[in-house]
């Protein structure tokens, strides 16, 4: 093998990857879809996408061996990982969606459904562009973005900004919840950068340009 | 809650078209749209894109899907796709082509069970209920389907009552009479919808300039206004309209760095 492909999108059957592939390609990445654990070592950058059921995603990551392979690459192999939407939630401890299912345990945060008392009468799922801020300053994955930046969200479950997450992004929907984080080789967004206009592309470019 | 500017691309048998009162005029493919209508700039100024296959007669789904792919390849906003959806198998193809949501119209009358089946798989929030309205001589807002070729005998109010009890995430209400005229939205429809629903409302048909967008978006129950007319917002027209609307106090997302 000569030059290695740069960004591997983990393809485990959870949602359509066309938009994400297009957006990463647009910012200059060489994008490959990966569905075999053995192929993960070829990539300096990994993206864990996903929409749909946490339980099904958790099972697929476990059964395919992709989950263990991702954790191994991040902890010992020198890859940087970006989780998006359900992909971010899967990087945490777990979720009670359809009964408890474990996450990859890369960050010490649990996913929960928006509580009724948090969101009061706001609609669930939370859909649309929403204002996102960066309490530790806009650095790392969030470098170069406006102090508050609008990103596109679709979700009914959320993580809260607790524990050691490095630089975080936070969004308010009755409750201040975790919109993203950057802790060096693990980073993630609850929103969809590939659906968030130029600011989303900028964030993806920050990820792609990162040295593992 | 932020409001939305939506652009609707109409596709007919291989190319994109402009519509006036649902009569179609061919314009070109995606590259043509980008070159001659600055569609790239338009795409950077909208919150959401809708792509509808309004082909009369036999549709070619694979060809439509490839047109959708070529648009979504360089348009980084949520995309809703529809036109002639009659089953989940069509929906699956559209999702693979880059659709985040699907738009159903005639199916709401012809087969509500299939609408429910689609919502069961992709989630009600991803199903947009499109409603076309044509006013009678006494100005009664009648709902028409199959690209305004079939009458339903339902008034807008009756149809909305039926539709909003189905598992759908949004309403997209278009005026056949105002469509493509640039004469302004049919704002009267908003009151005629009733208030017995909680889904976001997208209003379409008749937008000619930014004042029309402002009139629609100023109504508390209107979440979004859609325009399908590239000619009225040629060049950076939509970008300027977006800035102007924000300056006039319409809560719209800020794009860019």
- Cα(first) to Cα(last) distance of chain B is 21 Å
Mean pLDDT score of chain A: 94
Beta-strand portion of chain A reads: 25-35%
Helical/strand content category of chain A: alpha/beta
Please state how the strands of the largest beta sheet of chain A are arranged side by side. Answer: 2-1-3-4-13-12-11-8-9
Number of helices of chain B: 10
Tell me, briefly, the overall form of chain B: globular
Strand content of chain B: 25-35%
Radius of gyration of chain A: 16 Å
What low-confidence regions of chain A span 5 or more consecutive residues with pLDDT below 50? none
Sheet with most strands: strand arrangement of chain B: 1-4-5-6-7-10-11-12
Give the N-terminus to C-terminus distance of chain A in angstroms.
Answer: 20 Å
Number of strands of chain A: 13
Query: Regions of chain B with pLDDT < 50 over 5+ consecutive residues?
Result: none
Topology pattern of chain A, helix = H, strand = E: EHEEHHEHEEEHEEEEEEH
Question: Helicity range of the residues of chain B?
Answer: 25-40%
For the biggest sheet of chain B, the summary is: 8 strands, parallel, barrel
Helix-strand string of chain B: EEEHHEHEHEHHEEEHEHEHEH
Characterise the protein shown here.
- The complex is a heterodimer of chains A (212) and B (257).
- Chain A has helices spanning 18-26, 54-64, 66-77, 86-90, 116-119, 197-208, and strands spanning 7-10, 31-34, 45-48, 80-84, 94-95, 101-102, 112-113, 126-133, 148-155, 157-158, 167-172, 176-183, 186-189.
- By secondary structure, chain A is an alpha/beta fold.
- A nine-stranded mixed sheet of chain A has the order 2-1-3-4-13-12-11-8-9. A two-stranded antiparallel sheet of chain A has the order 5-6. In chain A, strands 7-10 form a two-stranded antiparallel ribbon.
- In chain A, a hairpin with a 3-residue loop joins β11 and β12.
- The longest helix of chain A is centred in the middle third of the chain and has 12 residues, at 66-77.
- Chain A is globular and about 45 Å long.
- Chain A starts with 6 loop residues before the first strand and ends with a helix.
- Chain B has an eight-stranded parallel β-barrel with strand order 1-4-5-6-7-10-11-12, surrounded by five helices.
- Chain B starts with a strand and ends in a 10-residue tail after the last helix.
């Amino acid at each position: 093998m000569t030059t290695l492909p740069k960004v591997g999108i983990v393809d485990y059957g959870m949602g359509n990857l066309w938009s994400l592939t297009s957006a990463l390609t647009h910012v200059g990445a060489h994008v490959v879809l990966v569905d075999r654990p053995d192929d993960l070592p070829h990539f300096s950058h990994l993206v864990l996408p996903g929409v749909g059921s946490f339980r099904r995603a958790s099972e697929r990551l476990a059964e395919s061996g992709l989950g263990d392979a991702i954790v191994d690459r991040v902890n010992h192999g020198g890859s940087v990982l970006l989780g998006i939407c359900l992909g971010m939630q899967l990087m945490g401890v777990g979720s009670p969606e359809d009964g408890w299912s474990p996450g990859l345990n890369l960050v010490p945060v649990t996913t929960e459904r928006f509580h009724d008392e948090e969101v009061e009468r706001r609609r669930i799922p939370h859909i649309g562009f929403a204002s996102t801020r960066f309490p530790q300053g806009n650095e790392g994955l969030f470098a170069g973005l406006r102090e508050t930046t609008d990103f596109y969200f679709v979700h009914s479950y959320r993580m809260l900004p607790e524990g050691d997450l490095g630089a975080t992004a936070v969004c308010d929907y009755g409750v201040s919840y975790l919109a993203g984080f950057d802790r060096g080789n693990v980073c993630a967004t609850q929103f969809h950068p590939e659906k968030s206009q130029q600011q989303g592309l900028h964030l993806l470019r920050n990820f792609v340009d990162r040295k593992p | 809650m932020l409001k939305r500017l939506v652009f609707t691309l109409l596709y007919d048998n291989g190319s994109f078209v402009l519509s006036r009162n649902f009569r179609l005029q061919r314009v070109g493919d995606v590259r043509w749209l980008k070159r001659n209508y600055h569609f790239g700039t338009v795409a950077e100024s909208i919150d959401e894109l809708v792509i509808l296959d309004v082909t009369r007669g036999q549709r070619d789904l694979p060809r439509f899907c490839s047109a959708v792919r070529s648009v979504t390849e360089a348009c980084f906003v949520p995309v809703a796709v529809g036109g002639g959806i009659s089953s989940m198998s069509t929906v699956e193809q559209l999702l693979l082509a880059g659709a985040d949501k699907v738009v159903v119209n005639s199916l709401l009358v012809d087969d509500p069970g299939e609408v429910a089946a689609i919502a069961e798989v992709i989630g009600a929030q991803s199903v947009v209920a499109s409603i076309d309205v044509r006013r009678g001589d006494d100005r009664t807002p009648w709902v028409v389907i199959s690209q305004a070729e079939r009458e339903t005998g339902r008034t807008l109010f009756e149809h909305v009552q039926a539709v909003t009890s189905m598992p759908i995430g949004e309403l997209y209400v278009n005026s056949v009479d105002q469509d493509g005229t640039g004469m302004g939205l049919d704002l009267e429809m908003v009151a005629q919808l009733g208030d017995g629903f909680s889904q976001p409302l997208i209003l379409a048909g008749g937008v000619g300039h930014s004042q029309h967008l402002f009139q629609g978006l100023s109504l508390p129950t209107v979440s979004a206004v859609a325009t399908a007319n590239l000619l009225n917002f040629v060049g950076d027209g939509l970008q300027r309209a977006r800035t102007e609307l924000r300056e006039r106090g319409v809560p719209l997302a800020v794009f860019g760095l």
